[in-house]
Amino acid sequence: MTHRVFLRELKLTDFRNYARVSLPLDSRHVVLTGENGAGKTNLMEAVSFLSPGRGLRRAALADVARVGAAGGFAVFADLEGMEGDVEIGTGTDGGDDALVRRLRINGTAAKSVDELTDHLRVLWLTPAMDGLFTGPSADRRRFLDRLVLSLDPAHGRRASDFERAMRGRNRLLAEGRFDPAWLGGVERQMASLGVAMALARQEMLGLLTALVDAQDLSSAFPSASLALSGFLDDEIAAPAIDLEDRYAAILAEGRYRDAAAGRTLEGPHRSDLLVRHREKNMEAERCSTGEQKALLVGLVLAHARLVANMTGHAPILLLDEIAAHLDEGRRAALFDRIDALGGQAFMTGTDKSMFSALGDRARFVTVSDGHLNV
Ligand SMILES: Nc1ncnc2c1ncn2[C@@H]1O[C@H](COP(=O)(O)OP(=O)(O)OP(=O)(O)O)[C@@H](O)[C@H]1O
C-alpha cells in the first residue's frame, strides 16, 4: 500500500438539501450524525458522485439539483488520490443541459467518467441494500455487476452492448422476422458479449472466494459462499469459445419459444447470485435480519479488501446507517476492519454514541437541515 486515499475537502453547491457547504477533512474517517432528513445520506451521495455511474441512490440527475435552485448542482473534492493530489469537480449545468453530467479533473474536462477510477474507488453500503438476499434477482445481478465494474470498467460497456443486441433480437422476433442470417448475426454478438459478462462475474466470485478462504472465519462477519446460477451453469468452466457456441445454439433453438414469450428467456440477464452463510450452511435469505446484514457487511468488506489488493489503494467507503443492525461487539469489529483496510470511511447514524468506539480515529460532523457543524 503506497499511501492513504482520502478527501481533504468536499464542497457542495445546490446539491439536494445543501445550498452551499464546505467540509474540511483530514485522513481520518468521517462520522455524520443528525436527525432524520438532515442530509446525512445526501452528503454520502455527493461523495458517491466521485465515481462513475449514478451514485448510491441511482438517482436521475434532474432530481439531484436542489429544489428551488436556478441551475444544476456541483460537487467539488480536493483529495489525496491514487496518483497524488487531485481536484475533481462534477455536476450539471442548468436548463437544457440539466441531464448531462460534467466532470473536470484538475480543471480539465474529462473525456469519460471512467477517468475517475484512476484517482479513487468508492464503494458503498446503504439501507436500500438490506433486502438484497430476499429481493428480486435483478438487484443481486446489479450488485454483482457493480463489484465487477469496480475492477473492470469495461464490464459496463459489455453489459449495455449485450442489452442493445438483445433488444434487437427481441424486436426481430416480435416482428416475425426469422431470417436466419440476420438473427444469427445478432445472436453471435449476444453470445460473445453474454459469455464475456458471465466469465467476468465468475472471475469476480473466484477472487472474492479466495479472499474469504484466506480470512479469519471466526470474525464478527460471517463468510459467504458465492455462486452464480441461471446461465450456462454446469458448462461455465469450458473454454470461452465453446461457451459462445453453446449460447448461440441455445438462442437459435429458442427463437420460436422466445418469440411467443416476447423476450429472450436465456442469458446473463437471467442469472442470479446465490449467497450462503458458510458456517451455518444456510441460504442467506433464510438467515435473520441481523445475520443478513452481517453477511452483507462481510461481503462489502471483502470486496473493499480485494480492491485495495488489486489497485494498491484502499477505496473510500460509504457506510450509510451502518450501526443500526449491529450489536456493540460487531460495531467494534467493523471499526477495526475498516481501520485495517487503511482507507477513509464515511459513516452515518442518528445516534453519535453508536460510534464512540472510534474515538479520535474519526472526525465527527453534525448535520442539521442542510448545514454542517464540524
Ligand atoms: N433535490 C432536492 N432538493 C432539496 N431537498 C432535497 C432534494 N432531494 C432530497 N431533499 C431533501 O433531503 C432530505 C433527506 O436528506 P437525507 O436523505 O440525506 O437524510 P438523512 O439525514 O440521511 O436522514 P435519515 O436519517 O432519515 O436517513 C429530505 O428532507 C429531502 O426532502
Brief characterization of the structure:
InterPro entries: AAA+_ATPase (IPR003593), DNA-binding_RecF (IPR001238), DNA-binding_RecF_CS (IPR018078), P-loop_NTPase (IPR027417), RecF/RecN/SMC_N (IPR003395), RecF_2 (IPR042174). 38% of the residues lie in helices and 22% in strands. With 374 residues, it is of the alpha/beta class.
List the keywords.
binds adenosine-5'-triphosphate; 2 domains; 38% helix; alpha/beta; Glutathione S-transferase Yfyf (Class Pi), Chain A, domain 2
Describe this entry's structure for a reader:
- This protein has 9 helices and 15 strands.
- 38% of the residues lie in helices and 22% in strands.
- The protein has 2 domains: 6-132 and 287-373, P-loop containing nucleotide triphosphate hydrolases (Rossmann fold), CATH 3.40.50; 139-275, RecF/RecN/SMC, N-terminal domain (Glutathione S-transferase Yfyf (Class Pi), Chain A, domain 2).
- Adenosine-5'-triphosphate (ATP) binds next to helix 1.
Write the topology of this structure.
Layout: E1 6-15, E2 18-24, E3 29-33, H1 40-48, H2 61-64, E4 74-81, E5 84-91, E6 102-105, E7 108-109, E8 122-125, H3 137-151, H4 154-174, H5 180-213, E9 224-229, H6 240-253, H7 255-261, E10 272-277, E11 282-283, H8 289-311, E12 316-319, H9 328-341, E13 345-349, E14 362-368, E15 371-373
Helix pairs in contact: 4-5, 5-6, 5-8, 8-9
Bound molecules: adenosine-5'-triphosphate (ATP).
Adenosine-5'-triphosphate (ATP) binds at residues 16-17, 34, 36-42, 63, 66-67, 350, 367.
